[in-house]
């Protein structure tokens, strides 16, 4: 099967200098937003997504999960499907989503993400034999942590 799958792949490589340091949006943030929009277009909704990030600057050997900014990604995806959407609006929504992704990335990299503290709270309750806090029993929490898309080193 692998040879037939590989035969169907077209690969184009190029270098784009626009993503150089300080030259606009970070490529990683743009790709993460594009993945959210692509998922929305394929399935009609966003999904719980995570990208593991190293916390080596603040907690060597540890990671945390970066989650995309849902509302800006959803607004962009919906606008892209609107045939009357003006290019200026689309560009503004793209910038907003990419900036929100970049901001979340910096928060997680600086140790300010929510995933690690929540995981610690859950684990502490389990180890102490205490009942889990209600947050962890809520169906919304289960849905938010059932990752349908996991990206790594984009």
Automatic annotation (TrEMBL):
Q: Which Gene3D superfamilies does the entry mention?
A: Chloramphenicol acetyltransferase-like domain (3.30.559.10)
InterPro entries for the chain: Carn_acyl_trans, CAT-like_dom_sf, Cho/carn_acyl_trans
Q: Which UniProt keywords apply?
A: Transferase
Sorted alphabetically, the Gene Ontology cellular component annotations on this record are: peroxisome
Name the GO terms of the biological process aspect: carnitine metabolic process, CoA-linked
Annotated Pfam families: Carn_acyltransf (PF00755)
Similarity comment: Belongs to the carnitine/choline acetyltransferase family.
Identify the PANTHER family for this entry. CARNITINE O-ACYLTRANSFERASE, CHOLINE_CARNITINE ACYLTRANSFERASE DOMAIN-CONTAINING PROTEIN
| Name of the molecule in the record | CACP acetyltransferase
Which gene underlies this protein? Crat_2
């Amino acid at each position: 099967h692998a040879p037939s799958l590989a035969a169907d792949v077209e690969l184009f490589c190029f270098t784009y200098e626009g993503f150089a340091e300080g030259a606009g949006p970070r490529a990683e943030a743009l790709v993460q937003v594009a993945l959210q929009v692509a998922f929305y277009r394929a399935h009609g909704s966003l999904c719980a997504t995570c990208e593991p990030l190293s916390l080596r600057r603040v907690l060597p050997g540890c990671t945390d999960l970066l989650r995309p900014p849902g509302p800006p990604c959803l607004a962009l995806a919906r606008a892209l499907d609107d045939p009357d959407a003006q290019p200026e609006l689309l560009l503004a929504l793209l910038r907003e989503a990419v900036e929100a992704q970049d901001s979340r990335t910096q928060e997680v990299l600086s140790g300010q993400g929510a995933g690690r503290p929540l995981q610690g709270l859950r684990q502490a309750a389990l180890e102490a034999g205490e009942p889990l806090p209600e947050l962890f029993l809520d169906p919304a929490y289960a849905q938010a942590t059932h990752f349908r898309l996991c990206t790594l080193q984009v």
